[in-house]
Design brief:
The protein has 701 residues and is an alpha/beta fold. The protein has 16 helices and 38 strands. The protein folds into five domains: 95 residues, no CATH class; 157 residues, Rossmann fold (3-Layer(aba) Sandwich), CATH 3.40.50; 101 residues, Immunoglobulin-like, CATH 2.60.40; 210 residues, Class I glutamine amidotransferase (GATase) domain (Rossmann fold), CATH 3.40.50; 91 residues, Immunoglobulin-like. The longest helix is centred in the N-terminal third of the chain and has 21 residues. The mean pLDDT is 86.
Length: 701
C-alpha cells in the first residue's frame, strides 16, 4: 500500500509546520501561557494537537491510497456433456445411462485436483450443471446445437484462464451453424469424447421439408421435400402428402443407391383459411431400424388476406389511375373505382375507403362522407382544389385545414426520419423526395394527437412543417392523408428516373396496408403464437380493457386448453402482470391444441378462442449415425485429441501432459480516497480525545 498526492512531498512539511504553529499559539502564547501546568504536560498536549491539525491539513490535499493485490486462478477445464435424445437411439444407450455417468463423475473429481472444473450440459441450449436445482433429465434435449455451446463458452468465460474444453457428444448437430467455425475462435484445445454408434443401418427418412409458414387463401404454395435412404438400394417406398385426412399428393420412389437423396416439390392449393397441419410421410420399408423419421408435420396458416378497397372520387382525375395501378400491384387487394355520385355500396363491405377530393365543394356531389365513416371502415383522404375543407374539418378524422383564401402551394415531399408507424427504407425515401411537388391547399394545418407526419411539405427551399403525407391511429379506425393532388406526376417521375414504378407503388402500398388494418377495438384479447417447437414453453398473454379502452387486470381470467386428440381439457387461471395477464404452460406434448379464455367485467362476459400447434419435429431421430469425424476435425483444428466414450479417464492423462495449462497470477491495483478510510478518522479522533482527557484530568478545562 502506498500514498499518492498531486503535490510535491515537501508540502507535508508545511502541514507539520501548520500543526506546530497552531499548537504553539494554543498552548504557549497569550493567556494559555499564564496557566499553571507543567512543561511536560504542555509539550504532550502541543504534540497531540500539532499531529491532529497536521493530519487534517494533509487530508486537504486529497491523497489517494494505492493498493496492489494478487490472486491465483487455476486453469479452467470445461466438461460439456451432450444431453440430446439421439443418444437414446444408439445400442449403447443403457451404458450412457449407467456406467458412463459414473466414469464422468470420477473424471471430474480427478481433474478437480489440478484444475477448476466447470460442467455444462447442452442440447438446443446450454446449462451450467452446478446451477441446476436438480440434474436435468437424461437425454432430454430435442435438438443439438454444438456451435451454440462453443459460442456460449467463449462468452461465459471471456478473459478467464480457460485451459481446455472437453466435449462429450456423438457429433450429430441438427440446428445452428457448423461447429468448426465456432471452434476456431476458442483459442483453447478441444478434447472430444466420442459417443454414439457410427454404424449405418437401413433407414428411410424425411430429411427436410422447406415451406412457408403463411399462405394466402386462393393462392398456391410449395413444399420442398427432401427424402433420404441408407442401405436400401433396389428397394422402393411411397411418398404421401395429406391434410385433414385428404391425400393431396403421392409418388412412388425407387432407391437406386445405397446413399439415396431426392428432392420433390409439391404445389399445394390454399383453398381453406385457417391453421392446417400437412402430413408428409414416406411408407416404412420392412427392415428399417427406426420409423420415427418417416413422418413430418408441416404447419401452414392460410390467411384470407384478400381485401377490397373502394376508390371514390369527386370527379375524373389522373390521380385515380395512378392510385388504382399502385394498389392493384399487390395481388391481395381488389380495387373498385366509383364517382361519388354513383357510390351506393355498403362501406362495411370494404377494408378501406379512399376519398379523392372528398368531401367536395362541387355542386351535384351529394356523397355523405361522415355517414360512410360511421361504419368504422378505415379511410384515406387525398386533398385537392375541390376539397371542402370546412366539411373535412367537421369529420375530425385526424387532419384539419383552416384556409382564409382559396389558393394552392407547390409542396415537395420532405421525409420525416422520426416517423414510427411503419418503415420506409432510406433510399426509397430519398428518391421520393426528388419527386415533383403536389398542389396542396394553402392554410393552417392541425394534426390530431395520435397523428404522425411521413412527409412534410417543402415549399421552395423552406421546410414549412406542414404535413404532406400523414397517418393517424384512433381507437377504432386508422386514417391516412395526402394533402395535395398530382400523384400521377409522382408515378410518372418514378418511371422517368428509375424506369420502374416501385418507389411510388411501395409508398402507396405502405399507406394502404397500414390504414386498412383496423385498430383493435376488442375489450378482451388473447395472444398465443400459432406454432411452438416441441421443446418450447407455451406462453399465453391476455389484455382486458374497460369501456374507455384502459387496461385493467382485476377480474380473473380462466383458460381451458384442450388437445384435439383428447376430449378432456386442462384449466388454468392466468397470472396478473403490470397491465394484463400471462401464464407459462410449460412444454406440452406435440399435437394440435385449442384454447378458450373467459372473463367478466362490469357485468359483461368476454370470451376469446383460438388454436396453436406444438410441432412434432423428431430432429434427433432424423440422423442417429454418430459423426466422430466432426470431433476429430474439431480436435485437430484446436490442438486437442479424441478418446472413446468407454475410456473418458484418458482425458485427464492427456491434459496433464500439456505444459501450457498453468495457474495464472492476476495483479490488481486499486485506488481509494484516503479521506474514506475509517482508520484515518479514528486516528484523528483518538488524538483529540487523548488531548481532551489529559486536559480534563489536569484541570485545564
Amino acid at each position: 500500500m502506498s500514498i499518492i498526492i498531486d503535490y510535491p512531498w515537501y508540502f507535508v512539511i508545511f502541514c507539520l509546520l501548520l500543526g506546530a504553529a497552531y499548537a504553539v499559539v494554543l498552548y504557549w502564547l497569550g493567556r494559555k501561557a499564564e496557566r499553571d501546568f507543567s512543561r511536560g504536560l504542555g509539550t504532550a498536549l502541543s504534540f497531540l494537537r500539532a499531529i491532529s491539525v497536521a493530519a487534517i491539513a494533509f487530508l486537504l490535499f486529497s491523497p489517494l491510497v494505492k493498493r496492489e493485490a494478487s490472486r491465483k486462478e487455476k486453469p479452467i477445464v470445461i466438461l460439456a456433456q451432450d444431453n440430446s435424445k439421439s443418444l437414446d437411439y444408439c445400442p449403447d444407450s443403457a451404458y450412457y445411462r449407467g456406467d458412463y455417468i459414473a466414469k464422468m463423475d470420477r473424471l471430474a473429481d480427478d481433474l478437480s485436483r489440478d484444475y477448476d472444473v466447470q460442467r455444462l450440459v447442452f442440447g438446443g441450449d446450454v446449462q451450467l450443471l452446478d446451477e441446476q436445482a436438480a440434474a436435468p433429465s437424461l437425454h432430454s434435449g430435442q435438438a443439438t446445437d454444438i456451435a451454440n455451446l462453443l459460442a456460449e463458452v467463449g462468452d461465459r468465460y471471456f478473459h478467464r484462464n480457460v485451459g481446455a474444453v472437453v466435449l462429450a457428444t456423438d457429433g450429430i448437430y441438427n440446428t445452428g451453424a457448423n461447429p468448426v467455425g465456432a471452434a476456431s475462435s476458442l483459442a483453447v484445445p478441444l478434447y472430444g469424447i466420442a459417443m454414439g454408434d457410427t454404424t449405418v443401418y437401413p433407414d428411410a427418412a424425411i430429411a427436410n421439408v422447406r415451406f412457408n409458414r403463411i399462405a394466402y387463401l386462393g393462392n398456391t404454395f410449395p413444399l420442398e421435400i427432401t427424402v433420404s435412404a441408407n442401405r436400401l438400394q433396389g428397394r422402393s417406398s411411397t411418398l404421401n402428402v395429406s391434410v385433414d385426412g385428404r391425400r393431396l399428393y403421392t409418388k412412388q420412389l425407387q432407391f437406386g443407391d445405397s446413399r439415396f437423396t431426392a428432392t420433390e416439390t409439391v404445389v399445394i392449393d390454399a383453398d381453406r383459411a385457417g391453421m392446417h397441419n400437412y402430413i408428409v410421410e414416406i411408407a416404412p420399408v420392412g427392415d428399417e431400424r427406426s420409423v420415427r423419421n418417416n413422418r413430418r408435420v408441416v404447419p401452414v396458416e392460410v390467411i384470407d388476406g384478400h381485401q377490397k378497397i373502394a376508390l371514390i372520387a369527386a370527379a375524373p382525375h389522373p390521380d385515380i389511375a395512378a392510385l388504382r395501378a399502385a394498389v392493384q400491384n399487390n395481388s391481395n387487394y381488389e380495387v373498385e373505382s366509383f364517382l361519388a355520385s354513383d357510390f351506393n355500396k355498403n362501406p362495411r363491405d370494404y377494408n378501406l375507403l379512399i376519398f379523392h377530393q372528398l368531401p367536395s365543394r362541387t355542386a351535384g356531389v351529394g356523397l355523405d362522407v361522415a355517414k360512410l365513416l360511421q361504419s368504422g371502415t378505415p379511410a384515406m383522404f387525398v386533398l385537392g382544389s375541390q376539397t371542402d375543407l370546412a366539411r373535412l374539418n367537421a369529420l375530425h378524422a385526424g387532419l384539419e385545414v383552416y384556409a382564409r383564401i382559396d389558393r394552392q402551394n407547390e409542396a415537395a415531399p420532405l421525409f420525416n426520419t422520426d416517423f414510427t408507424y411503419f418503415t420506409l427504407d432510406d433510399e426509397t425515401a430519398r428518391r421520393i423526395a426528388q419527386f415533383p411537388p403536389l398542389l396542396s391547399p394553402f392554410g393552417e394545418y392541425k394534426l390530431g394527437g395520435n397523428a404522425q407526419t411521413l412527409f412534410s411539405a417543402r415549399i421552395g427551399t423552406v421546410n414549412s412543417g406542414i404535413p404532406l403525407v400523414a397517418v393517424t391511429q384512433q381507437q377504432d379506425r386508422r386514417c391516412a392523408f395526402v394533402a395535395g393532388e398530382g400523384l400521377w406526376r409522382w408515378r410518372l417521375a418514378d418511371w422517368q428516373t428509375n424506369a420502374t414504378h416501385s418507389d411510388f407503388d411501395a409508398l402507396i402500398n405502405k399507406l394502404v396496408v397500414f390504414t386498412a388494418l383496423r385498430a383493435n377495438g376488442e375489450h378482451f384479447h388473447v395472444e398465443v403464437k400459432n406454432i411452438f417447437a416441441q421443446s418450447e414453453s407455451v406462453v399465453v398473454d391476455a389484455q382486458l380493457y374497460n369501456d374507455n379502452y384502459e387496461p385493467v387486470n382485476q377480474p380473473d381470467v380462466e383458460l381451458v386448453v384442450r388437445n384435439v386428440a383428447s376430449p378432456e381439457g386442462a384449466k388454468y387461471t392466468l397470472n396478473r402482470t403490470a397491465t394484463g395477464y400471462s401464464i407459462n404452460l410449460g412444454v406440452l406434448p406435440s399435437g394440435s391444441y385449442t384454447y378458450s379464455a373467459t372473463t367478466r367485467l362490469s357485468g359483461k362476459s368476454y370470451t376469446a378462442t383460438g388454436s396453436f400447434l406444438v410441432e412434432d419435429l423428431h430432429l434427433e431421430a432424423l440422423n442417429t449415425v454418430a459423426d466422430h469425424s466432426l470431433l476429430a476435425t474439431l480436435a485437430a483444428e484446436t490442438g486437442g485429441a479424441v478418446v472413446d466414450a468407454h475410456s473418458p479417464e484418458q482425458v485427464a492423462e492427456l491434459l496433464r501432459q500439456r505444459d501450457d495449462l498453468k495457474t495464472v497470477v492476476y495483479s490488481e491495483t486499486s485506488y481509494s480516497d484516503m479521506l474514506n478510510l475509517p482508520l484515518i478518522l479514528i486516528f484523528i479522533l483518538l488524538l483529540l480525545t487523548v488531548e481532551w482527557v489529559l486536559r480534563k484530568y489536569n484541570g485545564t478545562i
